């Protein structure tokens, strides 16, 4: 149980809100001209998955089947039907008092074929309406340009982000978004959890291993990451030119590992593990490859091809702030043999005997959030934004027709206390906080509906059965109270 050490206090104008992603909530996967994305091709996989390779395994045959079959359970195709419920959902966010709503734009809804010259006007119209609805309630949108939904066209033609062509196509897409939506959107992110390519290359980059028999797959991942770094920098530069007042940030998975023991080798292994978390955000903040990443690539015998102006592009396209997801912590050791592993946000770590675990095995740790905030601010000296944090549990409707989720309120309370201490005791510049899955959505890790994060229950099961009605949980009123008091009434 986290015990806060400071008087609860948050800056005036602190941005409280919630977060979703297009591929997990919108549905309407083939309506109004939308093109197919990798997320439309991922099957339902339920449960506590400890084998990450198995969790993210995907083949060219899987892709072929997804483009031709219709009787397989692809949950992301339906989401929670936010595409047709966005007004109702945003109205509920406004009732909670949201100051900001983090969401993403689906590239394939704007350009069904990324090589199209003109955007899909139905897609432009949908997001314009969403932004207008937010503005009606004085909710600031925080928009992610790419959230794990690589267009299938890019996979079929260019092997995903391995193809250099993706850089210019993404720059065109970003420019279109800034031109059409810049009047509504002040806060932007380029890529969601940009560090994730080397953990799950299919969703992050559209890379399918069996398509790379001409090059080591790991080298292909490094090259694809470079292309995303260049594309991100170009998007930042374009965005600042079109929308001078915009704040454009990066977004990372804030994995946090403690050494399992005080043995020097465990501490060294943990330090090396943490470097792998920061390596690509270092590029987005400092505008160049860190030497340790260059050594890592070279020592593996790989090369990353740079075009003539890439170094200059990286320098010119550094971000304004650093945002991140934080859910839990794990331990790490020089050798994990004989140690119990626990699942987490797209990785496995050594189980910490001092922490509780959720139904999915994620170990909750509010102290780790404060630790992470200090660590990030000391490293980057840029404003920080927590854009994902939350607790996934098996919520059920009780006989009275409500969800009594005191466990979610307790989780939120502890993490708000940790944020307050980081701000008031540690001097961290924190812009805001958006709870992940503020309304129940399809889980990214398992593609199931059963793993629920929301303050709002959506009546639909893992197979799409249900009324899709929205029902306030107890945590809805609790978060409303937190926001009304600017984090001081817990």
From TrEMBL:
Cellular component annotations (GO), alphabetically ordered: cytosol
GO terms for MF: beta-glucosidase activity
Keyword Hydrolase on entry: yes
Family that this chain belongs to: Belongs to the glycosyl hydrolase 1 family.
Gene Ontology biological process terms, A to Z: carbohydrate catabolic process
Entry superkingdom: Bacteria
Keyword Mitochondrion (UniProt): no
Species the sequence originates in: Amedibacterium intestinale
Record's keyword terms, sorted: Glycosidase, Hydrolase
UniProt protein name: 6-phospho-beta-glucosidase
InterPro entries reported for this sequence: GH (IPR017853), GH_1_N_CS (IPR033132), Glyco_hydro_1 (IPR001360), Glyco_hydro_1_AS (IPR018120)
Gene (name only): bglA_6
Residues annotated as catalytic: 388 (nucleophile)
